[in-house]
Specification:
secreted, 37% strand, VWCE protein, glycoprotein, Complement Module, domain 1, mainly beta, 269 residues, single chain
Length: 269
């Protein structure tokens, strides 16, 4: 490559090729790297071999003497020394701890609860013998008991009831209506009562559920001179005749209002 090399000389070509001059010939071979550490850093710019002047741990470069914790934590401590990473975990004495999440790094097993001759695991929930209204829980060797919470009722106190074997009161069903109460006149009608609200052609009945059902009467009987009886819905065609504002009974004769020489008679047909 235009450069003179002394016999026996050795140099490095680009691409990490190690070359020597022997007997007028150039012999090249790939550079062989000897890495004496477990976590070497990548080769620096222009270099071919990794370096042990630092550590590469979990993709993160660490300086010589750097102390760190791995990503999984668990209170393990690691140190970088000459390209080697050494990690130490704390030694935890055997035993129990009062809570499932201790503040230190040692894992522990929460204490069991011994209650009334029985053993319960931490976090277990149970009821007292014969009392389903009380719930107990084992917390780190101690038992805490409390009453079963009851829902909030929306009925007044006199409508609440507590059944046999029940922990919480329930609302009784409201009593069935005994009749129909009308707010406009303050009159209460018993179930099945029929009455007229003021119009003789309308009849109402009190239903079993306390509601009022009303229906109008259709008059089908017609005649030329019907008689309207006060308090009666339909005109009466068999009671007599109505003439010029006066009522005459059947077969009754009377003078005509238009001609005094004429005599009229009421005939019901």
């Amino acid at each position: 490559r235009g450069i003179s090399r002394e016999p026996g000389s050795r140099w490095t070509e680009p691409g990490c090729q190690s070359c020597t001059c022997q007997g007028g010939q150039v012999l090249c071979d790939t550079v062989s790297c000897s890495v004496p550490c477990s976590h070497p850093l990548p080769a620096p710019a222009g270099g071919c071999c990794p370096t042990c002047t630092g550590c590469l741990h979990e993709g993160v470069a660490r300086a010589e003497g750097d102390v760190f914790s791995p990503s999984d934590g668990n209170c393990t401590v690691c140190v970088c020394l000459a390209g080697n990473v050494s990690c130490l975990s704390p030694e935890c004495p055997p035993g129990s701890c009062p809570s499932p999440s201790p503040a230190d790094c040692c894992s522990c097993t929460p204490e069991k609860c011994h209650f009334r001759g029985r053993t319960y695991a931490h976090g277990a929930r149970f009821s007292l013998d014969g009392d389903d209204c009380t719930t107990c829980v084992c917390q780190g060797g101690e038992v805490e008991c409390s009453f079963t919470p009851c829902p909030v009722l929306d009925c007044p106190q006199h409508q609440r009831q507590l059944g046999p074997g029940q922990c919480c009161s329930t609302c009784r069903d409201p009593p069935a209506p005994a009749g129909c109460f009308l707010d406009d006149n303050g009159v209460e009608f018993p179930v099945g009562q029929i009455w007229s609200p003021g119009d003789p052609c309308e009849l109402c009945i009190c239903q079993a559920d306390g509601s009022v059902s009303c229906q109008r009467t259709d008059c089908v009987e017609t005649c030329p001179y019907p008689i309207r009886i006060p308090g009666q819905c339909c005109p009466d065609c068999s009671a007599g005749c109505t003439y010029m504002g006066r009522i005459f009974s059947n077969n009754e004769t009377f003078p005509s209002a238009l001609d005094p020489c004429l005599s009229c008679i009421c005939l019901v047909r």
